[in-house]
Amino acid sequence: MPSVTWTKEQLDAIEAKDRAIVVSAAAGSGKTAVLVEKLLRILSDREDPVPADRIAVVTFTNDAAAQMKQRLTSALAAAAELEPENEWLTAQQALIPSAKISTIHSFCFSLIRENAGSLDVDSSFRVLDPAEDDVIAAKAAENVFDDWFDRRPDDMKRLTDFFCPGAKDQRRLAAIIPELRDNILALPFPADYMAQAADRYKEPPEPEDDSLIKLYTDYVVKKLKAAAALEEEAYEDAVNEYGSDCGGIAKIKKNMDIFSAEVSNIMSAADCISDDPSLLFTGKFSVKFDKVTFYSSGSAKDADGKKMDIQFDQTVIDSVKDKRNACKAAFEKFGGEFTYEDIRSDYIIHAEISEKLFGLMNDVFAEERRLKNEKNALGFSDAEQIACSLLCSRLPDGTVEKSPLAKELSDYFSIVMIDEFQDSTAVQELIFRMISKDGTAEIPGRNFFAVGDVKQSIYRFRCADPRIFMKNIANSVPYSEEGSEPAYILLNRNFRSSHHVVEFVNAVFRVIMSKQNGGIDYGDDESLIEGASCEDDFGPTEIIELPDIDSSDEDENGDSLSIDLIEARCVAAKIAHLIKNGKLHDKNGERPVRPSDICILTRNTSTAPLFISCLEELGISASGAAEESYLEAREISVLINLLRCIDNPTLDIPMAAVLMSPMFMFSAEDMANIRSLRSSSVFADITAVSSGKGTSAALKKQCDEFLTVFGTLREYAAAHSVEELIGFIYDKTDFMSVISIYKDSLKKKANLRLLPVYAADYDKNGTGGLSGFVRRINNMLDSSKDFAAASAAVSSEEAVSVKTIHKSKGLEYPFIFLCRSWTKFNLTDKNQRMVFVSNYGTAFKISDPSRLTAYESFPRRALSLIMEKNQRDEEMMLLYVALTRAKNKLFITRRTDEKSAKHREEIMGLLESGKMRQEEAVSAGISMADWLDAAIGLFKKHDDVYSLGSCDMVMTGAELSEAEAAEESETKQAEYSPERAELFRSLMSHEYDLTLANTASKITVSEIAEKHLIPPKAIFTKDKSRPQGISAAAAGTAVHAFMQYADLKKLYAEKASPDNAIAKEAQRLCSLGLLTKIQAECADSSMISGFLNSGLCGRMINADEIYREKKFLVKISDLNLDDSDLMVYNSTEGMLQGVADCVFREGGKYVLLDYKTDRRVTEDILRERYSRQLSLYARALSMIFGEKISEGCLYSFSLGKAIGIELK
Predict the structure, then answer these.
(1) Distance (Å, whole) CA 852 – CA 1169
(2) Cβ-count burial of 150 within 10 angstroms (0-12 exposed, 13-18 middle, 19+ buried)?
(3) Which of 312, 308, 305 is nearest to 243 (CA)?
């Protein structure tokens, strides 16, 4: 095992014991390695050994938990190799799979099952996915609304009138429930919280004690003092320009005397407000602004009234006016925004609405529990709340008391380790503290170990509260070996990024991040320290200045309509140059830059398709950008519509969608001909065509084939589960093969493999069969809910990644392109009708029924200040995450259009003259580009490089791709030509020969084989060797998927004891998203070990070349088919598509291998079923490789042997 040199801070974190530790681990600081090493040392400590089942490790995601287990298992295995006599290490390695290394939700579910006897919960409960949980919550709200309309009509009317003024229904009220629910459930003791929130406004506000008044006055005092300072600066600028004696000009001196008195009044007023903020609410606070004339060049007159030829700097005069006007606006706005009477009136209304709203929420939670009890199901938030109730309770005086179970667990666990602590919620933090040794609600226990980075807290929308992390740091002391109080350790050495990346990140954030902006002072404690020895020097961060464009046409955000395309093409050209010329070093030496080394980051997905298309124009693959919803993905939409039609064939739109999909390939013209019969439904029209009514013989045949398949599917659906039906659809339609030829087919197929998994989950607990499953999908779509899509890890091709910044967290790439940084911040949360801040409560806009309008209330105004700051802080964290993904080099696009350039010049002019403070410039920013400009503007140019301290940066003009140049070439008007017109008419009047119309234009190998064989009678019996609830089709798909992705060389090396190796490999593939959890369980070790021990496997892994899941699409007529049944295809222009399981080359010859999972078969049956199919594969692949396929064979997993096939 290679030795690791740990930094002092890393070693402190690894070795710290018997005290609560919080580690602030910056990006790239080796956090995971530290966690694994700490656990390894705890498990292998000879003096005080701790068994693996007495550690509790909480990670943010399931993938992180799986990775932690895998790395810890590998580390233990390596340690055991060095000490083969150490039986303890071997024992701990065996315990790792059962160790409590999981997400917080998995930990809570496990805790509930283990203690179900003390709860009103059945231990066999199922876990709801978030989408179904939301659907149940929406149903609960709907039921409670109906109940309140019956039992409490006056209260319900008051709420609907308040939240839905002028509306005819309660949709606006219903819309605020989900977010309010999520925020409340992120807190411990939600019932207590709602009771306190309902009482929040019942007492009249006291200026000295009320938290909202203090919040508001602190903000206003700060603003007024800043405005007063601005006025003082304006006065000083004017004095410097006019001179202390005003050039002897009486009128200028008179105006400056007025201005001076005004400045004194304003400074005095700001001091008064600071001393006594209550003056703001008297309704009498005001500052008089007299008329002041600022003379410009040539406008002053002498005593005789003649103009004097005196020159003043007009820029300075304009700046003085602007500053004075800004100060005047601030005092006019805040001086009388609210009075005490306004606040009291708002509190009375808030008290009434809060009491009714939280009463409604109490009933919604109760109804939600009832519905979930009926289903014996729990959601993630339920798990947290129940776990919290198991571990502690709140006493009447507000103190939190540990339960006996919590005391038992806190004694049992030797360490409680939390990863990504900055993304914790309040209820999660309380759970962590309750299971830590001597932990209380106020302080963590002495075996508490939390790691995170508040600068990467970007999940407030999931109710994460970064204040928790900052509070724990604030309540700790710097770590030293002495002492027992809670301590913190800073890991700031970055082992990921190059010198230039580290220096640029520091340069930017030292300028823009502060307590005021971002909530953190980015000083030495937060700055990155270079730790990587980066062999590849690609130079400083590069600012790509986009070409100036005509911005006369702008969208609603003020963006030029063509800037997105310009940016995408410039970035594509830069990437093409990088791939063509760049060289990287890895463990195998120097290699060319690959597309997968590059990631394009954007704030949202709106322009992602443009980047992909522009890259593809240059022959560069790109993926991962669309991030479409699972249920709306094209391939899933087809399946859902087919399920709808099987359930109810009279649905016209789903039926038309299925017919025109890649599954059945009816054209728009076909559909027009079908619908011309005008029957009661599309299905009735298809049936009519099939019976011989109207249209062509080709269309009749196509309808016949559809009805045959559709009828078989409906018959199968009547006697089987939804999961089995979906598997049967895949087999019957060969939809997986159809999808194989599409772009990003691996992702699409992974999505398709997930659908039976979701159906199986429904089948376990649902009682409505296919109709119930369809209803569930429809409800999810109606409420904008979704299933989780397949992991992006399924894409194995070399491609540039296009991601949102949120999706990039935790990843790293040699090259990062930060694009669309000018996208305006999304600050809409603070504009919602209701706002929620956990430590203050809720606040609302107040409706005025007489005018059918809503006005700003004092509580909402106060809370919106926090909301806006929180949102802006998170935007800054997003920028930090984006910049720290880069290993070798950062590229940032920048607009150079007139509007953007002018804005930058104005800001930098104010900063350089000292007329605007750096913090003010950052606070005024409305996009990441504004923040970057505030930092970039401080760089000074030296030759071709810009520098700020030790940080260098270059600015380059963007080069457009050739594709754009071609597109921008002038289009010429074609002249009229009688000859061409006649030719066009003759072509348009041509009648096509429909002789070949009866033959499909594209067909799969499976379709041909099935069409020309008498299929064996289907046996719909369950195989007892499969996991319960898994269909034969699903099990077969699982085996094929395992064989496609598995590391066969590694498995072959361990074939002597394969069971454990196969299980580990299945789990590895599952963690990468290549297999589903159920598919991993279907990896039958006995069947796969049979293959590993066959001579065929040895041949494969020793082959010169090997291709798994080899796709092909060839022209059928090129195959020169000589089979009498298949010769009809020789005269067509149709295409043949398919996917071969495996092709390998040995001794200069190609061998074709196909896996078969058919059961209850003999060698002869398999040869009869698949020889024609394999022969077609061989002919197609011979064309692809330019060389004959010499050998064909099947491998039967049920028979455990290879079967040779004669290729024809």
Answers:
(1) 74
(2) exposed
(3) 312
Q: Which residue has the tokens 């978030």?
A: 130
Domain ranges of the chain: 8-121+376-491, 126-292+311-374, 541-625+797-839+855-950, 630-783, 1002-1018+1084-1205
> What's the maximum distance between 2 C-alpha atoms anywhere in the chain?
121
540 burial level (CB within 10 Å; 0-12, 13-18, 19+) = buried
d(CA 434, CA 511): 40
Q: So what's the pLDDT on residue 951?
A: 92
Cβ neighbourhood burial of 495 (10 Å; 0-12, 13-18, 19+): middle
Taking the C-alpha atoms of residue 732 and residue 642, their distance in angstroms, rounded to an integer, is 13
* Domain range 541-625+797-839+855-950, CATH class: alpha beta
Residue 318, Cβ neighbours under 10 Å: how many? 12
The two domains 541-625+797-839+855-950 and 630-783 share their CATH topology (first three levels equal)? no
End-to-end CA distance of the chain: 54
- Give 905: exposed, middle or buried? Use CB within 10 Å, 0-12, 13-18, 19+: exposed
The tens digit of pLDDT for each residue in 96-137 reads 888 899 999 999 999 999 998 888 888 889 898 888 898 899
Separation CA 319–CA 330 (nearest Å): 17
Helix (H, G, I), strand (E, B) or coil at 284: coil
Cα separation, 230 vs 738, in Å, equals: 68
Give pLDDT tens digits for 1157-1205. 888 888 988 888 888 889 889 988 988 888 899 999 999 998 889 999 9
pLDDT digits (tens, 9 = 90+) for 219-265: 888 888 878 887 888 888 788 877 777 766 677 777 788 888 888 88
Measured CA angle at 579 (ends 577, 584), to 5 deg: 125
CA–CA separation, 943 and 283 (whole Å):
59
Q: Which residue has the higher pLDDT, 746 or 205?
A: 205
Between strands 541-545 and 951-957, the pairing is: parallel
User: Of 1072, 1106, 1155, whose CA–CA distance to 796 is shortest?
Assistant: 1072
Cα distance between residue 928 and residue 933, in whole Å: 8
Residue 1136's nearest CA partner among 1093, 1102, 1184, 1073 is 1184
Phi, psi of 1013 (to 5 degrees): -120, 150
DSSP state of 987: H
Which structure tokens are listed for 1105? 């070349």
Residues 905 and 892 sit within 8 Å (Cβ to Cβ): no
Greater pLDDT, 598 or 554: 598
CB-based contact 186:339 (threshold 8 Å)? no
CB burial readout 566-593, b (16+ within 10 A) else e: bbbbbbbbbbbebbeebebeeeeeeeeb
Class of the CATH-defined domain 1002-1018+1084-1205: alpha beta
Q: Is the pLDDT of residue 8 over 50?
A: yes
Q: What is the CA radius of gyration of the chain?
A: 35
- Which of residues 717 and 243 earns the better pLDDT score? 717
Task: Say how far apart CA 98 and CA 79 lie, in whole Å.
Answer: 20
What angle separates helix 608-617 from helix 563-581, to the nearest 10 degrees? 50
How many CA atoms, within 13 angstroms, populate the side-chain half-sphere of residue 589?
0
- CATH for 8-121+376-491 (3.40.50.300, 1.20.1250.20, 3.40.920.10, 3.40.47.10): 3.40.50.300
Cα 791 to Cα 466: distance, rounded to the nearest angstrom: 27
